[in-house]
Amino acid sequence: MAGIVIEHLKYRYPGSNKLALDDITFSVNQGEFIGIIGRNESGKSSLCQAIAGLIPNFYKGAYGGKVLIDELEVKKVEVDELCQKVGIIFQNPFNQVTGSKLTVYEEISFGLENMGIPKEEMTQRIDEAMELLDISKYKDRYPFDLSGGQMQRMAIASIIAMKPEVIILDEPTSQLDPQGREEVFQAVQKLSKQGITIIMVEHNMEKIAAYSDRIVLLEDGKLIAIDTPQVIFSREDLIEYGVEAPIYTQISRKLGLKDKRTGCYPVTLKEIKPLLETEGGDR
Amino acid sequence: MKSISLYVDKGTLLNRIAPESKIMYIITAITVPALLGNRLAGAGFIVLSVLLLLSGKVLRKTIPLLSVSGFVLLTVLIIQGMFRAGNTVPLFSIGPVIFYREGTSFAMSIVINVINILLSFCVLILTTKPSDMIENFIRRGFSPRFGYVFISVFQIIPQMTETMSTIADAQRSRGMETEGNLWVRIKAFIPLISPVIMSSLINTKERALALEVRGFNSKHKKTFLNDERKTSADPYLQIILLIGILATIGWRVFVWLA
To answer: Which residue of B has its CA nearest to A146?
Structure first.
């Protein structure tokens, strides 16, 4: 299974004077759930595309450093080969529908057909992916007739069927309603439990804090910090990076509720409850 | 949102027949009457197409197509029947309007040819899933990239139409007049072009990325989820149609040499 190593990654888009990614170095363990946060234009999507190999294989421009997935340098591998190792999901579920298939079942087969997967294996993989994403009931539906959340789950299933070891989700819930968002998060959590490495860009801090093992904080293409959600959201200077801590962290900060063991504020309701009980008992 | 494809799956034998056989049928239905130079042959193929469409339970779907072309054909019939150069023998008259035999006969040939072509194409279009047809072509060596372009057009055009209608609604909500006479509509159309093109370009770029990460440019030999659409009768059908075309060509050459 895949671990990711990023070493001194630099990237500048063609025609731009500014580095979109500026000397980024960190590594991700296999099976980790990594959240990426930062203000708009901080380099979140560029980082995702660099890990997926779209930078520099699809987007040209000035590129330096290395991205290694399982010791395989993404720059040296074509995207169509890399897609069996790394899958990427984009913001708009609508634009991820190929437009060439008439049912959800056929839509999921698109990548597998391109990769030359035999039919028996293909059907088995599609069934597994649909089961995992809980979309089996939509298998005969026309892809464009699905709701945003269902469509995004179909896009994830299409990627899952290709059996990648890493899945990157670039703001997959930004265009979805709360129900659609919840559906996607539950699906991603299932993937994470299966040992797939997840990298997710998300603006909903409550969600990303709850699901991530570690969080990457970016600003102006630079890596500011990579640490547990508790450490990242306990930073005093967080607001300077255009990020607001989860509501539970904000409440805890107001109430002065810190985990004495870690010295950090809690980031979820689950974490805040025992602290409230202890502190409430003390008062 | 639906595909703009006219395909209707009625589960009939015609739905199961290979697209190549239907394409062969179109070629036969067009070339044989043309080579024979005989209106009866054209009429015969029209009857055959109607029977095929009936068996495919899609005859009613041809009515809108025939209605559109019917108006044009009626115009041809009237103009040729009344004014064709060389009109001499009156056929019938409606009040002072005289229709001539020569012009009407010429117009009838055009009408038969057009209806024959239209109905034979309907046999293919109304009973064949576009993706099945393209998949069959890809199996025979057609480029999967071009195949994708052909298939996706059926679904992406309705998507663009919907985007245009959303943008039109947005413009209307800001007070732009979009209903009214031709000039008002033209004026309303111009501000729509830029956002529609821009959003289409952005969508295209995003879709290109989404396709790329699903192996669109893969060098692997493509496999298919669906089995090839064909019946055991297809090879025979194609041979019979080919023999029909070759026999007609042979007869034509023979007549020409004689």
So the answer is: B1
| Pair (B115, B19) in one structural domain | yes
Q: Let me know whether B165 and B256 are in one domain.
A: no
Query: CA B168, B171, B173 angle in degrees (round to 5)?
Result: 110
Three-state secondary structure call for residue B9: coil
pLDDT in tens, A205-231: 999 999 999 999 999 999 999 999 999
User: Of A173, A162, A166, whose CA–CA distance to A92 is shortest?
Assistant: A173
In a mutagenesis test of the A interface, which of B213, B226, B227, B229 is the best target, namely the one with the most A β-carbons within 10 Å? B213
Has residue B107 been placed in a domain?
Answer: yes
Choose the mutation target among A100, A146, A151 for the interface with B, i.e. most B CBs under 10 Å. Answer: A100
Structure tokens at A215: 């969080």
Amino acid at B249: I
ipTM exceeds 0.85, yes or no: no
Query: Which of the 8 DSSP states describes residue A199?
Result: E
Q: What is the dihedral of CA A156, A216, A51, A146, to 10 degrees?
A: 20
Q: What share of chain A is helix, strand, coil (3-state, %, to 5)?
A: 45, 20, 35
CA–CA distance, A63 with A75 (Å, rounded to integer):
9
